[in-house]
Amino acid sequence: MGWDVVFKRNVVKNLPNLPQRVLQALAALAADIETKGPVRGDWPNYSKLPGGRHHCHLKKGRPTYVAVWKDEKEKVIVEVIYVGVHENAPY
Known about the structure:
Elements: E1 4-7, H1 9-14, H2 20-36, E2 47-49, E3 53-59, E4 65-72, E5 77-85
């Protein structure tokens, strides 16, 4: 069963501002989600959040970059709702 990964418009607009290392980690995360599903316990600091949302760290240190996504199991879609620094993450 494959999952479709989509990015919110604000995430796409912010992609050019992200460091190359974070973009590579995001691409790897999206590929993992597509093949293995939205629950990614094998990623650093992964946790499930309320409302079907999930988060993990893409880059540790200062600043820490995180990704937040939510899954819609009925549609087999995962929507990445945030990628950026930890301090602004919508937990």
